[in-house]
Give the backbone structure.
Amino acid sequence: METDIRFTHKTLVEQCKAGNSSSQFELYGLYVDAMYNVGIRFLGSKEEAEDIVQDSFVDAFKNLNNFKYDSSFGAWLKRIVINKSINRLKAKRIPVVPMDAHEYHLSDETPLETNPVDIKKVKLGIAKLPDGYRQIINLYLIEGYDHVEIGEILNISTSTSKSQYHRAKKKLLEIISEM
Amino acid sequence: MDNFEKHIRENAAQFDEHKADRAKLWAQISAQLQEKEKETKVIPLWRSSLLRIAVVIAVIVSVAGFVGLSMFNKNSGEDQYVSKELLEINMHYKDLVAYQVELVKKNPNLSEEDKAEFLSFMDELDTEYETLRLEMQKNLDNERVLEAVVANYKKRIELIQRLLQKINDSKKIEDDYGYTL
């Protein structure tokens, strides 16, 4: 029988809720690398990613009783990591959406068909994106959020998220094609 | 969604290229978690499934290596469950302390005097720990001895953390300055 993805590691999560430290260590082991990578993608620095991941796990374990299986534990934890990362960027006054954000950019939505690109090139391309473009690309393409969710995360409207994403994607494709 | 987007989403796993320093991060996470709940809870391991115990042991063994094994073998029979818990607690703190002592030793910002003073403190705590360990072998179930062992380790960690905090504080201004995007 296929169990709902939301209940992945349910036993483990329940043991953690009861304060079992070896379960906490086990759950930590399952997610630490993934979360660390999320942190690096957003913050671009290993030290800061470590800081955020550490903080997120502490928060997650302390507030585990608020986790009610509305999503999987991994998704819940990832949101904590992302929210903390975004807040960190904002505190540093690094733009999380393009500076000149406005919503009149619904121009060319014709899918830009491209040949399958080398993932390595995409990585390099994302790294070269200006601040403000990178986060929305990460959120949509790699973390797999939809525009409603991105709107919540970045505190912008769904349509802004869409238009900003399209702009960022265009920019990314430009950078990649120049490689 | 166009081909480009599909392609990336399908290969999103390839973007996870970094490996976290598990031991270091966990040491700090668990230290912070324990700060909150001052008393260390003792959870009977026999409540969990056999598999879970196996996983826990695998983790401990891989971290603690033969040290853990030799200790584990000393105790047998009905003491086994208790010793597993003990082993786990002990290993956890041992790792934490060893890791942080290493940090202190390596730190170039500390004078030799500070280091010597710090290490002598550690030695004192080591002696205390040895006494406690002997006591514990006589009387494995004694909670007070157990608590004393944990307190002993906590004292060390606190000591080290305060030291490191001091160093980091003095470094911070420089670091902030150097970080621009």
Remarks:
- Residues 22 and 148 of chain B are 28 Å apart (CA to CA).
- Confidence is low (pLDDT under 50) at residues 75-79 of chain B.
